[in-house]
C-alpha cells in the first residue's frame, strides 16, 4: 500500500508520534500528559480512602476504580460547551468514561488495593482522533504511577496490576485498512474500530462499526492484525515512559 493513502503521510501500519509527560498534575497520585499525534489528553489518578456505598451494602471485598472523561471547550476547532452547561453528561462522554473504567478495572486485582476508590480523570486538551484510545493508554501510565506511590507509602503490600493495557483505533479508509486514525481519516472511514488489549495479548474490548458500510471476514482479520501490532508498540512505549519516572 502506498504511504500517500494517509492524511499525514504515514504508512498504513504506522502509529502517530507518541510522547508521555509524567507528573503533569502535582496533586494527583499519578498523572501523565499523553501526546499522540495532535491529540493531547491529561490523565490523572486520585485515591479516596473509601468505597462506593453499593460495595459496603453488598459487602464486596476490595476496592473500586471509576473514570471520568471530558473534552475541554477549546479542544476542537469549534468550541465544545461543557457538559455542566447543558445540565447533564452527553451520551458520547458517558460511553467513553464507562469504557475507560472497564478497561482500567481489567488491569487490576481490585481486592489487592484494599477498601479504597481509584478515580481516573481524563481531560482532552486537543482532539485529532483517537481521544478514547489515548485516554485509556495514558490512564494506565497514570495508574501505574499511582500504584507505585501506594506501594512506596506502604498502603498496599503487593502490586495489584495484573497486566498492562493499551488501546488503539483501526479502520478502513478508501478501501484500505489503516492503523491509528487521525480525525480526517476517522470521519471518512467506511469501518471504524477500537481495540483494547492487555499485555498477555487478550482482548478487553472491541468496538467495531460499519459507517453506512459492511466489512468482510478478511477485512476484520486485517484490522485485528494491525491493531495487535499497534498495541505491542504502545505497551513498549508505556513501559519506557514509566521507567523514566
Order of helices and strands: EEEHEHHEHEEHEEH
Under CATH, the topology can be stated as Ribosomal Protein S5, domain 2
The main sheet orders its strands as 1-2-3-5-4
What number is the mean pLDDT?
93
Strand content bin: 25-35%
- Alpha-beta classification: alpha+beta
Q: How would you portray this structure in words?
A:
- There is one protein chain.
- The chain has helices at 53-57, 83-86, 91-105, 131-152, 183-187, 217-243, and strands spanning 18-22, 30-36, 39-48, 64-71, 117-126, 165-173, 176-179, 191-198, 203-210.
- A hairpin with a 2-residue loop joins strand 2 and strand 3 (39-48).
- The protein is globular and about 50 Å long.
- The protein has a single domain, classed as GHMP Kinase, N-terminal domain (Ribosomal Protein S5, domain 2, 2-Layer Sandwich), CATH 3.30.230.
- The chain contains six helices and nine strands, in the order βββαβααβαββαββα.
- The strands form two sheets. A five-stranded mixed sheet has the order 1-2-3-5-4. It has a four-stranded antiparallel sheet with strand order 7-6-8-9, sandwiched between helices.
- 32% of the residues lie in helices and 28% in strands.
- The termini are far apart.
- With 245 residues, it is α+β, with helices and mostly antiparallel strands.
Which features does this protein show?
Ribosomal Protein S5, domain 2, 5-stranded mixed sheet, 245 residues, 9 strands, globular, alpha+beta, 6 helices, 4-stranded antiparallel sheet
What would you say about this model in short?
With 245 residues, the protein is an alpha+beta fold. It has a single domain (3-243), classed as Ribosomal Protein S5, domain 2 (2-Layer Sandwich), CATH 3.30.230.70.
